[in-house]
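Exercise 7b. Backbone tokens:
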């Protein structure tokens, strides 16, 4: 999973904290990507971060919803 973020973004920090908390319950890999480091990513996500992408598909955006993320991650973990 990839979380697209920006520095100084409170919602991005909240999303990361939520995902880190969920990692304690459900095993998954998480990569953080600062969109400011890539112009194409910046153009795509600048007004929508944080955005969570799994296998190239956007699955969550602002605001992070912990219940929805838990359900998504649990379903993915069951599928293997």
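Sequence design result:
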């Amino acid at each position: 999973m990839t979380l697209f973020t920006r520095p100084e973004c409170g919602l991005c920090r909240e999303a990361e904290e939520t995902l880190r908390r969920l990692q304690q319950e459900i095993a998954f890999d998480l990569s953080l990507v600062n969109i400011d480091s890539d112009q194409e990513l910046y153009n795509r996500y600048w007004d929508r971060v944080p955005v969570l992408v799994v296998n190239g598909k956007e699955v969550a955006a602002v605001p992070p919803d912990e219940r929805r993320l838990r359900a998504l991650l649990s379903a993915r973990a069951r599928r293997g």
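Instructor comment: DSSP finds three helices and four strands in the chain. The first helix runs from residue 10 to 23.
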